[in-house]
Design a protein that fits this description.
It contains four helices and nine strands, in the order H-E-E-H-E-E-E-E-E-E-E-H-H. With about 220 residues, the protein is α+β, with helices and mostly antiparallel strands.
Length: about 220
């Protein structure tokens, strides 16, 4: 029972560690985890919390990029300010086509006009995982990933290595004990046979003595 519980806990921890590592490896230039056309966004500001469908602080939202955007749609988009990139939500007021690049331009409710590359995806249709973002945000931080993922994984690896070495040692010691027992048994066998031979000789001598005494009579 105890081993089963430990195995389940280790498995859950391994899944969390692998998922966190994949998210970090999937970072784009804006430090957002992207999986193909889907982006993983952590709701960590009040601005992102004020939307429909409702998103709350600590939620993880999976947003899929789409070209089927229409006027009055709410979209997640990148916002660049003083060289820093953040995520905001805005409503599309108008869509126009750039004559040179032949690409869509999206005029947003906050006064910005963005290219399609700056649009993450529509709010409508996005799925979420409630409150998991708090945990993922800690795990993705430098110290969080070091102390909660790297070090425990290293300790588990060393423990497993230690158990394997001890099992190998125990197995070799058991083999040596078996060899010693076999050698002892082999040493005892000739002693028993020699004892039988001596006893048979003594019995023969007794028989010959009896026959000689009878003849003398």
């Amino acid at each position: 029972m105890k081993k089963t519980i430990i195995t389940i806990l280790v498995t859950i921890y391994a899944i969390i560690a692998i998922f966190t590592t994949i998210c970090l490896l999937s970072y784009n230039d804006s430090h957002i985890s992207t999986f193909g056309n889907t982006s993983l966004i952590i709701i960590d500001s009040k601005d992102l919390e004020k939307n429909q469908p409702p998103f709350f602080m600590g939620d993880i939202v999976f947003v899929t990029k789409s070209k089927n955007l229409n006027k009055n749609d709410h979209v997640f988009c990148y916002e660049v300010y003083n060289g820093e990139v953040s995520i905001s939500v805005a409503k599309i007021n108008n869509i126009s086509v750039d004559e040179r690049s032949k690409t869509n331009k999206y005029e947003l409710s906050d006064g910005r006009t963005l290219d399609y590359n700056f649009i993450i995806g529509p709010v409508n249709g996005a799925s979420k995982m409630a409150k998991v973002g708090y945990v993922l945000k800690v795990l993705e931080s430098k110290f969080g990933y070091l102390f909660l993922v790297v070090l425990p994984t290293l300790l588990l690896f060393l423990y497993e290595l230690y158990t394997i070495v001890m099992q190998i040692k125990d197995g070799s010691s058991d083999d040596e004990d078996e060899d010693d027992e076999e050698e002892e048994e082999e040493e005892v066998k000739p002693k028993k046979t020699s004892a039988k031979k001596t006893s048979s000789k003594t019995t023969k001598k007794r028989v010959t003595k009896k026959t000689t005494t009878k003849k003398s009579k």
